[in-house]
Structure formats: C-alpha cells, structure tokens
Amino acid sequence: MNQRPRHVIRAGVIKALAHPSRTLIVETLTDGERSVGELTSLVGADISTVSKHLAIMKKAGIVVVEKRGLNQYYRLACPCFLDFLRCVDFIAGVNADGASCRAA
Amino acid sequence: MNQRPRHVIRAGVIKALAHPSRTLIVETLTDGERSVGELTSLVGADISTVSKHLAIMKKAGIVVVEKRGLNQYYRLACPCFLDFLRCVDFIAGVNADGASCRAA
DNA sequence: ACAATCATTGGCCGTTTTACCAACCATCCA
DNA sequence: TGGATGGTTGGTAAAACGGCCAATGATTGT
Q1: N or C: which end of chain A has fewer CB within 10 A?
Q2: Does A18 reside within a domain?
Q3: Contacts of A27 in chain B (CB under 8 A)
C-alpha cells in the first residue's frame, strides 16, 4: 500500500520529532497523557501553535488522542520512545563531551 | 558548558537526521564507511548538496570523517543507530498498518 | 438558547531549509 | 608545474516551516 522507499518513511517520522517543542512534548508524555492546555503551559507558546505541533505528531503516528469531556488528551502511541531518546542522547553525548559511544 | 535545555539538544540531533537523503546515508553507513562520491551516487543529487548534508550530520556528531588520499570517508560515530532506526520503524509501522506497538 | 471553556483551522509573514551552479581548495600523478 | 580527481564553500532562488492572531467548531453548564 505504501510505496515510498523506506528511508523516506523513516525521515517522515524523524522529522515529526525534529523540533524543540515537539521533543519536549514527547518527553513529557513519557510520564503520561496530557491535555492540550497542559502542554501549552509547558511549551509556553500560543495554544494554536501547540495544537499544530500535536497534529504533526499525530499524523506521523507518534501520538494518539482521546477526547474526554471538553479536553483532548494526548499520549504516546508507543512506549519505545524511551529507547529512542536514549539513542539520541548517546549522539548528543558524543557531540558535547567527545565521550566514546558504547553500545546500548 | 552546554546550558541549553535537554530537549533543545535532543531536537538538534534529531533534526540533523530529519531528511530523506540523510536517513538514506545513515542507513548506508551502518554497512560501513563510504566516500562522498559513493554517497552522491547513492543519493542522486549534486555532490555539493550531499557534502552539505554530511556537514550537517558531522556537526551534530552523527558521523565522523577521515581523509585518506584524495577521498573523505564518512562513517557513523555510533553503532547504536541500528537501535535508533528500529525505534523509528516501530512508529512507522504503527502509522502504516495500525499494527500494535510492542516493546523492543 | 446562551455563555464559557477547550481546541482546531485558516491566513499572514518572517525565518529556515534545500537545491543547484559556480568558484575555489586539496591531493596526487605525470 | 600543470592537469585531473575529489570535495567544500558561497550565492541565490524556491519551497517548507513556525509563530501569532482571528475565526470557527465542539462540549458542557445555566
């Protein structure tokens, strides 16, 4: 069904994480679901901006949303983001300290 | 030394991967080092374009370069990218198939 | 029905990204 | 030294991104 090459698909997912606000949101959601209003306070931007960030991540399959009452609650689609961020931190560590990179 | 918040640092690394050509390059480098010319053939863009992609990833600490003779050989700074891409594929799979996401 | 709250969507605009070409730097060999 | 090969850098133009504001749903309570 999806005929895009693998690296394009992968880049699409990665791109949806490639913004400081979105990374912050993902970090926060590892701790459990949050409403858009809560995430807006966290990020410190206009709620419309945060809503668009969430839409991007939803489209990429990174988060899922559930409506309860007046609120939309977002949570991670996948717990494996902890591993994901660990990989990222390895690279960041190499970059910052010149530390050697050991396997997971 | 680095006082930027963690999520900004993380986003910087992720951003350096967030392009189809760069993802393709990383995939290829998991198989071993390549020269700029080889990567240019792979990507199918101008060599100057590929050179700039590599510079972005080098600055982010994702790749390292070694000059031997006339060639610049790039390789991954860290073998953990296999894990990294596996995480990405989990998300991509959820997105594409609606498949459930199991832990690593 | 009306008002209040939570969130999404459209529009505008400044910034960033990306691609190509051209020019330049570096290395090796004749 | 001159030429060929391999790569980087600067310039520029098109496209994508990201932010806020304003307007529009959607849901709940009065």
Answers
A1: N
A2: yes
A3: 6-7, 10
Helices A81-97 and A20-29, packing angle to 10 deg: 130
- Counting every residue, how long is chain A? 104
Q: How far is the CA of B39 from the C1' of C24 (A)?
A: 22
Looking up residue B38, the CATH number of its domain turns out to be 1.10.10.10
What is the domain count for chain A?
Answer: 1
pTM exceeding the 0.85 threshold for the entire prediction: yes
Give the closest residue to A84 by CA, choosing from A36, A8, A3, A29: A29
Structural domain span for residue A54: 6-78
CA distance B69 to chain A (A): 26
Query: Is B18 inside any structural domain?
Result: yes
Contact B28, B42 (CB under 8 A): yes
Would you say residue B95 lies in a domain?
A: no
Instruction: pLDDT tens for chain A, 104 residues: list them.
Output: 557 899 999 999 999 999 999 999 999 999 999 999 999 999 999 999 999 999 999 999 999 999 999 999 999 998 777 777 877 887 776 555 544 554 43
Q: Minimal Cα distance from B14: which residue of A?
A: A18
Which positions on chain D have an atom < 7 Å from some protein CB? 5-10, 17-23, 26-28
